[in-house]
Amino acid sequence: MKKIKFIYILLIVLTTCFLTSCKVKEIKDSSEFIELVYSWSSGELENSCLIDLRELRNNATIDDYDSGHISGAISYDYGNFNKEKFITWITGLYSKKATILLIDSGHEEYIEISECLKEAGYKKIFAYTLGYQELKKANDFNQKLVESTGIEDCGC
Known about the structure:
Oxidized Rhodanese, domain 1; 40% helix; two-stranded antiparallel ribbon; five-stranded parallel beta sheet; alpha/beta; single chain; 156 residues
């Protein structure tokens, strides 16, 4: 009987640990990520943010935030990444219950940022892994999202 109770308690503990642990959901399907971003932009996805990890300005290259981004996305210039400053920045803006959506240039900047978010206590992290330029190619991008240029709405 004691063995059964022990196993039962162990299962509850392991299940609790599994359910409360954080796993970054890496998204390779453009339409799936666009739906998430659309939910964020329309206000349906409460307590959430979209962070664009591309460089803020890179002499106006085709793949920097300034040349085009989803309207309302917060810019975090990964080219100037500092772990401690990033954690201070994000925890100052959003509670640890927030849903964080990440998009980068397709060069896996999201991996290090996701680790920092997990370390800071965030549990709902979604990362589009193919990069902004690939996302723009999706058929439903312009139907559901608004693209902006410049840095006036960067949130920095």
